[in-house]
Amino acid sequence: MTTSFDWSLPRGTVVSGKWKQGSYRIERLLGEGANGKVFLVERQGGWYALKIGTDAVDLQSEVNVLQTLAKQKGGTGAASFLVDVDDLRASDGKDYPFYVMKYIRGMTLSEYLNKEGTDWFPVVGYSLLGRLSALHEAGWSFGDLKIENVLVADYGRVELVDYGGVTAFGKGVRQFTEIYDRGYWNAGTRSADAGYDLFSFAVLCIQLHESRRLAQLTNTLLPQNRTPDELLKLAYASPALKPLHSWLRRALVGEFKSARAAASAWQQWMHRPGALRKSAPAPRWMKGLFVASALLLATTVYWLLRTGP
Ligand SMILES: Nc1ncnc2c1ncn2[C@@H]1O[C@H](COP(=O)(O)OP(=O)(O)OP(=O)(O)O)[C@@H](O)[C@H]1O
After folding, report:
1. Which of 77, 130, 245, 260 has its CA 20 to 30 A from that of 142?
2. Nearest CA to 200 among 163, 153, 147, 161?
3. Is 3.30.200.20 the CATH classification of the domain at 14-102?
4. For ligand 1, atom 8: residue with the closest CA
């Protein structure tokens, strides 16, 4: 059901659920995509993200996935993600479905690396592999893994958003983005498995460091010539990606048995000489603690000298 409803909800608009009467005050638009718009909203002093769908069926299947994930044990991170599901009675008199989720205070992956520096890439990548592992261990593939669907909070902690592509292992992935898709690169099926997400993860690494060359490649290659080899050649020619070449090859040809195995190989690469970064940078709080300790020491020395014998 694609609608003509105008989704520009100005700041201060109150969205009320038709069935459960939850009221949310619109603060601003967080983002939009093919399936709807996501707004930052406030309710009783708390911040949430509210997604209004343009396609009721798609939004409902996203909600179903989130509800199933919430019921499952195993740390998918989705348990407290879904907050409310309801319909909104819009000014055109029609009902539109929406759901409310935890607000992730973060930046997209590329914004984060632009701001904090590409030194954080290995740390963030490792955190993302951890998120995927938890989802896979619960029997799901994320499906539509791409830069826009990965938000990074403080200290490189990663959160996935947009569960519209999440697919039970063994079923066909329906929502995907072409350049991240294993099928598009003639590298395998669209059947949901750990390898599907790991392939997208490898493309995401290339997209982060070589977006222009990747776009050129996809524009020039004929469909039958799209292969993992082409992606690997691009990675090999990139100074930023060359050290990761062997890991990328394993992900692109489907050699990793699981995201956990991929994460542990990633960790080995992180700690290897010549990796982009050998260890996580000192977080800001640690630097703050160091300055505070230095000040305390200076004050103590000063006090001892003044009150000394
Ligand atoms: N829980 C959240 N917290 C903060 N920001 C969010 C949240 N959910 C979504 N966003 C922002 O809104 C954007 C669009 O959300 P989402 O990807 O769910 O929409 P979509 O219509 O399904 O997009 P797509 O066309 O990629 O499938 C995201 O890229 C992200 O920047």
Report:
1. 245
2. 147
3. yes
4. 161
The DSSP output letter for 25 is E
Q: Is the pLDDT assigned to residue 279 strictly greater than 70?
A: no
Tokens in use for 21? 């009467």
The verdict on the CB of residue 164 being under 6 Å from ligand 1 is yes
Contacts of 215 (CB under 8 A, 6+ apart): none
Q: Across the chain, what does the average pLDDT equal?
A: 86
Active site residue 144: yes
Compute the average pLDDT of residues 12-35.
91
Predicted pLDDT at 214: 98
Which ligand 1 atom sits closest to the C-alpha of 146?
26
Return the minimum-mean-pLDDT range out of 109-123, 174-188, 283-297: 283-297
pLDDT at 291: 47
Domain residue ranges in the chain: 14-102, 107-270
Q: Does the pLDDT at position 81 exceed 90? A: no
Locate all alpha helices (DSSP H) within the chain, ordered by sequence. Answer: 56-71, 109-116, 121-137, 194-209, 211-220, 228-236, 245-252, 259-270, 284-307
Q: Out of 58, 86, 144, 181, pick the active-site residue.
A: 144
Q: Identify the CATH number of the domain defined by range 107-270.
A: 1.10.510.10
At 33 the pLDDT is 77
Q: Whose CA is nearest to atom 22 of ligand 1?
A: 35
Q: Report the pLDDT averaged over residues 128-144.
A: 95
* pLDDT for res 306: 57
The answer, as to whether pTM is greater than 0.80, is yes
Mutate to test the pocket of ligand 1, among 159, 161, 166 (most ligand atoms within 8 A of CB): 161
Smallest CA-to-CA distance from 106 within 42, 156, 48, 146 is with 156
Query: Residues, the chain, total?
Result: 309
Residue-wise burial string across 135-158, b where 16 or more C-beta atoms lie within 10 A, e elsewhere: bbbbebbbbbbbbebbbbeebbeb
